[in-house]
Design brief:
251 residues, single chain, seven-stranded antiparallel beta sheet, outer membrane lipoprotein receptor (LolB), chain A, alpha+beta
Length: 251
């Protein structure tokens, strides 16, 4: 999955001090989606939740971020922390300083992937994100703006070649669907449909049905057609449990 180490500034109605009038059409669509899902609350709030037996604590401030996960395995109680400064792992309170670069990269991608999707659509205003408006479309009778996102090589993370599609409601700006192609672990293409949504601390959190195409070489822009035909297979559910929010800790 994409490794996008994000450190975004405060979002406001003028978005980084730039008036809405100077924003492109696709930028305004994404700005509206971010605002509909939480707006400046993202930059003021730490969140924690459980996902597939692992506890996560995440926050991004204007100058820093920290993504932490905690779980128990055969080695003991594991705490992984990814920040602006890098990645660390502790097992039973002891810092593990023998990790290879390969393992550090794998653990960092795993932590960051969960954070990236949990914060969407907030991360789409990252400086490395390249947004392209593909026009309006309709899914299940609802009108959507379709936006493609790719990433610059510089600042776009180790897997900047991954591509994403997002569907934002024309009327409500909500991100009801997304699809992406990726190249790690043999590559593939996925589509997610919102299964359930709820607001906690002013931020909209969404659970998804995770779908896959029969052929991992399926073009990304075919996923909506296959979804509407019922030709995608349910792979899993993406559910965030026990969500809590709090003020970002003082540095």
């Amino acid at each position: 999955m994409k490794l996008v180490l994000l450190s975004l500034g405060l979002l406001s109605l003028t978005f980084f001090g730039v008036s809405c009038e100077s924003r492109t059409e696709v930028e305004q669509i994404v700005d509206a989606a971010i605002n509909a899902h939480g707006g400046d609350r993202y930059a003021e709030t730490a969140i924690d939740f459980d996902f597939r037996g692992t506890h996560y604590f995440l926050f991004k401030s204007p100058t820093a971020f920290e993504y932490r996960r905690e779980f128990t395995d055969s080695t003991g109680q594991v705490v992984d922390v990814l920040t602006n400064s890098g990645f660390t792992r502790k097992v039973n309170g002891v810092l593990i300083d023998t990790l290879t670069e390969e393992r550090i990269g794998a653990f960092s991608r795993s932590v960051n992937s969960v954070a990236y999707f949990a914060f969407l659509p907030y991360g789409l205003n990252d400086a490395a994100a390249i947004k392209t408006y593909l026009g309006q479309t309709k899914i299940k009778g609802k009108d959507y703006h379709q936006v493609k996102v790719t990433f610059k090589a510089e600042g776009g993370g180790e897997h900047f070649e991954d591509e994403f599609l997002y569907w934002f409601g024309v009327a409500d700006s909500r991100m009801d669907y997304m699809a992406y192609s990726y190249h790690t672990d043999g590559g593939g293409v996925r589509m997610r449909e919102v299964r359930e949504a709820r607001e906690v601390g002013g931020i909209r959190f969404q659970d998804y049905i995770n779908l896959k195409a029969a052929n991992k070489e399926t073009p990304l822009d075919s996923m909506q057609y296959l979804f509407e035909k019922g030709a995608l297979e349910k792979l899993s559910e993406i559910n965030l449990e026990n969500i809590r929010t709090s003020a970002i800790p003082e540095n």
